[in-house]
User: Fold Isoprenylcysteine carboxyl methyltransferase from Nitrobacter winogradskyi.
Amino acid sequence: MDQNLFYGDRLQTGGLCGIVRHPQYTGIFLVIFGQLVHWPTILTLVLAPVIVLTYVRLARREEARLIKQFGEAYRKYMRRVPMFLPRWRDMRRARARTIS
Assistant:
């Protein structure tokens, strides 16, 4: 489970978790995509979707547990923040905050 998402009984929604709900899985997906571009073999082409689907299922199970733990607060967070792929406007805002 994403340990950076909560601290004790408090939901953490800032930083990377304010842009995507599962930043670690987004990073894994980027690595998988890079591997496909850099080294496209039959094995990587077969394994990539299996790995991605496995992590999607894991993320959904984690979110079910987090809904039980945080209830409506987590549901609001889910409506506001995408699961894996950041929204362009959120990326621009995050970049503007780091530059200033």
